[in-house]
Amino acid sequence: MSFDSTSPRRNRVSSARVGVLGRGALRSRLRPRRRAGGGYLGIDYLLERLEDRRLLDASPIAYPPIIINNPGGVGPLQSSTPPTTAFTPAQIQKAYGIDSLVASGNAGQGQTVAIIDAYDAPNFVNSTNPNFNNSDLHKFDQEFELPDPPSFQKVNEFGQPGPLPGTDPAGPGAPGSWEVETSLDVEWVHSIAPMANIILVEANAPTFNDLIVNGVANAAKLPGVSAVSMSFGFPEFSSDIRFDSIFQTPPGHNGVTFLASTGDNGAPGSYPAFSPNVVAVGGTSLVLNPDNSYKSESGWSGSGGGFSQFESQPPFQNVVTQNMTQRTIPDVSFDADPDTGVAIYDSYDFGAGTPWMQVGGTSLSCPCWAGLIAIVNQERVDAGGTTLDGPTQTLPALYELYSDPAKYSSDFHDITSGYNVYPAGIGYDLVTGIGTPIANQLVPDLARFPLSVNVPRVVNLSTVPGRNGVSTILVTFSKPLNPQSAMNLLNYSYSVQIPGHNHRLGAPSSILVGLESAEYDAATQTVTLTTTTPIHPGTPILVVINQVTGNPSAGVGVADLEGILLAGNNDGHPGGVFMQTVIASGPSVRRPTRHSSVEKGAQLVHGPGTRLSVKLPTKLVAAPPHRWLR
Q1: Per-residue pLDDT for 557 more than 50?
Q2: Which residues, 6+ apart, have CB-to-CB distance to 467 below 8 Å?
């Protein structure tokens, strides 16, 4: 990228691809690289291709995807004040709709973001340190009128306060310095979520073992951590799949979302971004209006993206790449082009007199998304829920919103121009993924994604033989319901079906059984369903419970006594549709039998103050009223 200094600020940016990741070298080393004609400094890493990571101490070196902006290729890279061409926290917040969330008190309070970097950044000290007011983070906050974080803490890769590692052996001011990376990560997580706690995890070295096997795994276990930011990448290897389990919420811990930069060398991207358990964050070039509001974005040529060589397509991505079998990245994006980059304060690398620098790269986009997840998690916890689990909630939720045209247009900027070898286009693409956030719309929708709360669950289903073959079906819940606190039971849908081919719900030969109005007995926590049509003894049936979606006034459905919405599923995980196969009891059946199943692909989304919705099968055939149904 080269910045056209003669054009109005941010209104014209010319593009050129940076170098690709070198492979096949006999050893790992850093090599600064300057594009002909100026532009900016990039980092070209030559990495040993290790096909076997059984010896983790021989793992390759990670590259921090950070690029220093150098307009015109001449002049000092740093300054005594923030560069006038660099975006500020206030500008980025306004551009992406984050400012209104922060102003309303949703700035990540109560959440903790863990940042994984290599080596020590000595000019960042714990917030409890008497010298904190002289630290780079405090100076950054003073300049941009940000509050200091409630807590800032440094730990080593084992999650302990000490001993901390030494500084980057490349020395202060080296291109691609890990201290520059740390400055960017810490200051911009804080810029997005000013009231979130921050834990900086400093690995002993930028190796796979230090950063991921130790650093990430131990960071996720630290109390309160709900987001882990990884601004680094490794070339992909077949053995990576063995380490995907590291990017899962530890047992007994609150939900954790793992996020990683996709890289700054265009296609194909890097690991851990390729892990299906990680939110892969790509990059864009951002343009603002004169009032700092959002104007446009294009895909940045350096944004990592492409097809994994080894990771299979996760189920949540099927909505965007139905004909593919491999994991693709990125999932989402954020500003990353160094020509539309941001200001950082780094007195270690550039001195106390000229500590300011304009930087970019997906090292910017990843921590910004981590801060955004902290804001989402605050809203979820404030609503009585728990923090998002990355693999089972954050990633599926992002793609579920993408698959809803109305939500997609309201919650994301769809980036349709730009390239990184692959072109950006309408909808999902391999440059920007789903797109960039419209945070004031996206955050509430992510916060409403199925809350892990103590919702009432179906604990028993039974049938009672009735007269003339009519059956009474009893649905017993785990806790009391209070339909009057939300809407009438009639607005919550209970249906009974005789399954068709292969006992699948909605098969062409399925038969919908008529029901009388549902009745609720608070004493027994039971809903009674009575069929209006005789069912032949021994016929298997499915009982489906979900919110009526065709009635806009249906409200929130059935709630418990505390106003928490009915989950409607039998596996303890909110967000599904409860279904159970029972044997309809006629006069000749002495004892009903039953088994349970969950119809995959049916999804239910709920949250306080929102209407439940579910995709229902449509191929149902009404049954003749004058004959047995079977």
Answers
A1: no
A2: none
d(CA 80, CA 72) in angstroms, rounded, equals 19
- Return d(Cα 201, Cα 179) in angstroms, integer: 13
How many Cβ atoms from other residues are within 10 Å of residue 572's Cβ?
A: 11
Return the residue matching tokens 């990495």. 47
Contact 231, 269 (CB under 8 A): no
Query: Could you tell me if 606 and 574 are in contact, meaning their C-beta atoms sit under 8 angstroms apart?
Result: yes
- With DSSP H G I counted as helix, E B as strand and the rest as coil, what are the percentages for the chain, rounded to 5? 25, 30, 50
Would you call 442 helix, strand, or coil by DSSP? helix
pLDDT digits (tens, 9 = 90+) for 111-131: 999 999 999 999 999 999 999
Residues in contact with 569: Cβ distance below 8 Å, sequence separation at least 6, in sequence order: 457, 458, 575, 576, 577, 578, 598, 604
pLDDT at res. 528: 76
> What's at 187, amino acid-wise?
E
> Which tens digits make up the pLDDT trace of 73-104?
544 578 999 999 999 999 999 999 999 999 99
Collapsing DSSP to helix, strand or coil, 319 comes out as helix
Task: Output the six-digit token pair for 517.
Answer: 């109005």
Q: Is the pLDDT of residue 465 over 80?
A: no
* Per-residue pLDDT band at 511 (split at 50, 70, 90): low
Closest CA to 410 of 379, 374, 437: 437
In this predicted model, what pLDDT tens digit does every residue of 273-300 receive, in sequence order?
A: 999 999 999 999 999 999 999 999 999 9
Q: How far is CA 537 from each of CA 531, 589, 620, rounded to the nearest angstrom?
A: 13, 6, 21
Name the band, by pLDDT with cuts 50, 70 and 90, for residue 529.
Answer: confident
CATH number at 458-622: 2.60.40.1220
3-state secondary structure of 85: coil
Return the SS3 of 104.
Answer: coil
Cβ-based burial of 182 (10 A; exposed 0-12, middle 13-18, buried ≥19): buried
- Joined together, the tokens standing for residue 538 give 């021994």
Q: Which amino acid is at 26?
A: L
Residue ranges of the domains in the chain? 2-53+88-447, 458-622
Helix spans in 302-404 (H): 347-350, 362-382, 395-403
Q: Any idea which fold 2-53+88-447 has?
A: Rossmann fold (3.40.50)
**Phi then psi dihedrals of residue 182, to 5 deg:** -60, -45
